Amino acid sequence: xxxxxxxxxxxxxxxxxxxxxxxxxxxxxxxxxxxxxxxxxxxxxxxxxxxxxxxxxxxxxxxxxxxxxxxxxxxxxxxxxxxxxxxxxxxxxxxxxxxxxxxxxxxxxxxxxxxxxxxxxxxxxxxxxxxxxxxxxxxxxxxxxxxxxxxxxxxxxxxxxxxxxxxxxxxxxxxxxxxxxxxxxxx
Length: 187
Known about the structure:
The chain is α+β, with helices and mostly antiparallel strands and about 190 residues long.
């Protein structure tokens, strides 16, 4: 009787182990790098690569519009060009420890969806966000210009500060970064 139980358990363990090895061989994880940013979640299955759509779109500064009723995802990549102005001069380098007054100009074109709001934020080298300006819009144009009010900002650290332009496709949607420009802070 004991011999029979041991044989049954060995068979069960071999089946479970064999299934796990087969599953690992059939599905392989893939590390995805988009514009130098590494992410996980990709899979190779039956010779095809599957990637998480939101992660890919985020890396490309694109909007994902999900239509649950039709089970359809649309990726929208508007052209958004950012320019930083200090007075009437364009700038991109600052000195650490100094406070600057500047504004952000965005030129948006090739926008293939309507948007409900825009936001411009600055992120210090440690990832802390300060919103420069946000505004609700009822926009259904394929192109527009947007300029923030002047902001006074102190560059307390050495490193790269990211100024990002965000959009929302509806009031209840999440903010999506669609463009970024860097400011270098040096000693």
